[in-house]
Amino acid sequence: MGASSTQWLIFVGLTAFIAGLTWWRCRKEVHAVDATKEYFLAGGTLTWPFIAGSLLLTNISAEQIVGMNGAQTMITAWWELGAAVGLVILARVLIPMYYQYKCTTTTELLEKRLGDPGIRTAVSVLFLLGYLFILLPVVLYTGSVFIKSMFNLEVSILAISVAYALAGLAYAAFGGLRAIAISDTYNGVMLMVMGLLVTFFAFKAIGFDLSGIPAERLTLIGGPDSDIPWPTLFTGMVFIHLFYWGTNMVIAQRALAAPNMREAQKGIYAAAAIKLMMPLIVVVPGVIAYKLYGDIGDVTYGRLVADVLPPWMAGAFAAMIFGAVLSSFNSCLNSAAALYTLDIHVKYVNPNADVKKIGQWVAIFFTIGGVALVPLYQNAESIVKTMQQMNGLYSMPVLAAFLVAVMSTKIHAFAVRSGLIFGVALYAVFTFAWQPFGLHYIHLMAITLATTIALIYTLDRGLTPR
Q1: Burial label, 207 (beta-carbon count in 10 A; 0-12, 13-18, 19+)
Q2: How many CB atoms lie within 10 A of CB 215?
Q3: Per mean pLDDT, which range of 26-40, 213-227, 304-318 is the poorest?
Q4: Are 131 and 253 in contact (CB under 8 A)?
Q5: How many domains does the chain have?
Q6: CATH number of the domain that 296 lies in?
Q7: Residues 52-64: pLDDT tens digits?
Q8: 427 assigned to some structural domain
Q9: Torsion of Cα atoms, 357 then 360 then 365 then 368, to 10°
Q10: 301-315 per-position pLDDT tens digit
Q11: Interatomic CA distance for residues 99 and 95, integer angstroms
């Protein structure tokens, strides 16, 4: 039997095994009577290992593994190292508030702190647009690039994306968060083991000798022209992580599904500790691949895995990457379903709606939209840079609203809503029309955040009687 056949058999077998194990574990669990809590928060029963596992695998998907290794430079490690800081802030500051206010969605905190349902709805809409136009198509695209490059497939990226989307939809629409978190954890453990093995075999392929790799690809101190200039670590970088790990429903939803706050915090701390070792999986192999192949971009990791691993092991690793992509995709679908169903449909359309049924229809809609938008990202120079830059269109305005809500409950609702609109418009100008002083987009994200918060407080002073 040829290597390709071996890879495919192991790939399909492991994927089916994880799905079967997830189904068996879900059947054993005690399910909540409350349909909302069961479908969107796994019945509030996730223990810390499943929280940590799901946090990591939802984040570490193909856009990280493919995109960050595709950059082929050590500087991208800051996306992983900085994540530990974001997770600690989530555990220490935001999780206590989410549990104090009994939040089902992260956006619910805005309504309860600021006393205005409109702000919650506006932020949910921004999240939904970000998921539809940025996160979902990027996840599908990068996952498809990996499978195509590893198996040397002749089919199109779009066709592979459709297969991914259908599998992810099955988990999200019919299993809910419980199935997602359980499958995430199983896949996550195997991905960590296999990822470290890829790094080991990659080092072995170059004789454990990094000589010949340019110094600028090995440094953690980025120059002015690098993807992450070092001053950005002290401006927008910290706020990008605070938004992603602290307010983003795709991530924080897992921590909201614990039986209590302490269990959620344990899972988050475990995820933060593991994050510190993730550069060994998502950064170092790409740098090694530069010595083997030169600068080959987003196909780097798929080619490296195919070349350095034995055929049976390559098939196993492909199954883990497939699981990681499914994790990010179906997590996004479930979070989008929760935000639309609870923040929009139940509040404004039908308060007695069947939340699971509505959530399933939302998942189907976002699946179709995500697949349709995949071609937009096929010519991106750097998928990680493109995704982070585009995320700024909504991440900094949303983070501004959360920071204001955390710091004060006496802010006029009109000021916050105006700030959201202003922040989106300002960053859109920075991205598509005017880049002041040639500043890096991470600096511009920090400027957007600071300016938006300043505007909110300025408007509040003018609107609130003194």
Answers
A1: exposed
A2: 6
A3: 26-40
A4: no
A5: 1
A6: 1.20.1730.10
A7: 988 887 777 666 7
A8: no
A9: -150
A10: 888 988 898 877 877
A11: 6
